[in-house]
Amino acid sequence: MIEKKRRDLQEINSSSMADIAFLLLVFFLVTTTISMDKGISLVLPSEGNEMEVNKINIVNILVNESGKVLLDDKPTRLKDIKNIAERRISQNSKVIFSLQTHPRTKYQVYIKVLDQLKSAKAQKISIANPPSF
Known about the structure:
By secondary structure, this protein is an alpha/beta fold. It has a domain at 55-127: Nucleotidyltransferase, domain 5 (2-Layer Sandwich). The chain has 3 helices and 5 strands; from the N terminus they run αβββαβαβ. A 5-stranded mixed β-sheet has the order 3-2-1-4-5, covered by helices on one side. The chain is rod-shaped, with a radius of gyration of 31 Å.
């Protein structure tokens, strides 16, 4: 009988595989766009700029842990903050809104209050330290 010659199996040259993987990685890193979260846009004062403010110009907003809002010690609905803030700004252009929250206040409620103040075009918002409970 005739014997068949066995061929050696050809191997795939894998020496350039690392180069190809690296080039693909670089390609995807360069072509991918990274979306930046905007977050809350607040202009923070520089350090050491402390000044006395007349108490008439301060509107205190307190938010407790269950999301209830007190605006100058009066219970207020969340959706009414914008109208009240607009009225206060029209009465006194130097008004400062001081926002204090309980340490366990939900972040969503805090953001909703800030959004209401921003939509009322409040320029001066003080984020005060939470009161000790």
